[in-house]
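Local shape tokens:
==================
===
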Amino acid sequence: MGYNTVTQLVDTGSDQPLEVRLEAAATEIGQVVVTGVSQATELRRSPVPTTVVDHTRLNQTAASNLIDAIAHTPGVTQITTGAAISKPVVRGLGFNRVITLNNGAKQEGQQWGDEHGIEIDEFSVDRAEIIKGPGSLLYGSDAMAGVINFVAPDPVDEGRITGVATASYQTNNSQQGYSFQNAGNLNGFNWLARGTRKVAGAYQNRYDGRVYNSGFNEWDANGYVGVNKSWGYSHLTFSSFNQRVGLTEGARDSATGIFLKDIADGPNTRAVLVNDQELRSYALDVPQQQINHLRVGLDNNLILGDNGARLTLQGSYQQNLRREYGNALDPAETSLYFQLRTLDYSLRYFLPERNGWHLTLGGSGLHQQNRNLGVEFLIPAYRINEGGAFAVAKKTIGALDLSGGLRYDLRRITADALYLDADERPTASTTPDAETKFAGFASTFRNYSGSVGAAYSLNETLTVKGNLARGFRAPNIAELGSNGIHEGTIRYEIGQSNLKAETSLQADAGVSYVSDHVRFSVDAFTNTIDNYIFTRRLLTPAGTDSLSAEGDGVFRFEQGRARLLGGEVSLDFHPHPLDWLHFENSFSMVRAQQLNRPEAERYLPFIPADRLQSELRANFRRQGKRLTNPYARVQLEHNFAQNRFFSAFDTETATPGYTLIHAGLGTDLANAAGKTLCSLFITANNLFDVGYQSHLSRLKYADFNNANGRRGVFNQGRNVSVRLVVPLSFK
């Protein structure tokens, strides 16, 4: 990987030593993708649009969370709620339309929520593989927009015991991160264990100063223990993600613009100014979230004979606890408290190659139960049972690579009825004057997914590819059964239990040119979604806005038809003879509309603006005896104005364009023998402290600030990150 291929004729009868010396490649053309395919495939020969973010790039990126670390990938953006909460958006679609995998297994949390992040330790990830569009058939419903697989490090070599100590600090919000990993492999018995601690205070920008209650703290542990033998491997895996996150409301004093917080004043609350000490503290106030995600699983890979056949079996138990605290009179009261428990499995049989065909058969499924344990109720308690079967095939005919497959899924969701008494506490249906909060329902969704694609290498440098895929997504529990105030969207939401499953048809086409000094690629797509689920504001019989008892607008989930199109263009130069110099450029865009809707509802919400990125990077192999692999980079990120927005019901507003400059440098430090002692990475994001709001920032719609005439809370200002990685060897 990362070196040019050597082709050489060898006389096996000469009985002479053979030495092959590889030269470093100027372009990064050798990446391999393993997610969603029947066998490991060279990235540029995969018909399905896929991007890989490797470990080096993750280390060189200053990020406050895992999604933030990959959000500069062309075609990938993020919906954010401050520094801690990020949700991935792939080609304009997010939430339940993107599947997140933790080392190949589905991550099951409360994916439907705007303010619900990804519960994965950023230090546990070796690389990320991103499938754009419904091209993966191995994972079933919800992969309509794509799949993001966060891959753990490979087992260490036989006879080795190693470790990695990592420490990071970010200046903007005083974010500290510490992680220690130990891994070993002794006679096939291997293990990996990691512990992580992260803590951050309030972030700051030039217009808001320090943003009150935007900090977070996190404790994580993860790893595996198992055996690797000639017959394959079996690993017992575990992960525990534990985080507390402050939720910024953005209320400010009208005269000074200073943030306000609510405190108890007898039986009532009153708003007071936040002082400077509170802004600089790591302490969190209400509202806040507490998230605990536990996963224990088995990962097995069995080699069946010498013909290449193998069987993989994954199974796990997950528990996701999400508590939301919002009562200043009783900060310990859990307003919302979801307990989500999931048993999931997947079985895959990789058949031996026959006549160039690689075929994979398999199935997956889960049983899931969600309970309400808080004092407020937004969604009903429910159970999901689902299963699916698939077949995926790949064949190479000379320069032509063909791949495709078919999948069928069945999902049944059963929601419990809930009745409330006069004090809004659960009661029996027979209680006099009992209010029906949730009527209860049972819905069944069955559908199929499929894809077919081809990549053809016209010569060693030029490849063309195309893919046609059909995906589907069953409605989530909020869309089917919600009945309450959704604090994340600041509105009263009503679900409909008779919603149909979304289905999509996406066509992709691409061309890539890769030479020793130039890399150019174009990927375009069009995606049509039937039964697209969206929210529509309810009106009174008089035609005025319908309001809840608390004064919030009332919205109901409905369905329509949507169309998205766009793509990504990348152009990288490595000018000869300066192969150490990289000039990398990318442009990504999405156009998304609802068909047959009024003008104000024409565009889909949460669609990212067009984005242009240019990076000039210098990579040096060695400088003297002590510095190895030094690099320096500067990046321009321009986000164009987003004037195509969902303006109905005051949902979104236009967002002006902005330009950010990022920079970074780093190196490995070695001893006299050439052994790496540590790696140092220094990164500066938003180097010139530009005040900006991302179109996908939910804090953009916080309260108006009379002191500076601007609405909402702005994104993070200048942030300098320092990361130190120390490899350890115990054997």
About this structure: The helical segments are 55-59, 66-70, 276-279, 477-481. The domain at 157-729 is CATH 2.40.170.20 (Maltoporin; Chain A). The chain is about 5% helix and 55% strand. The first strand starts at residue 32 and ends at 33.
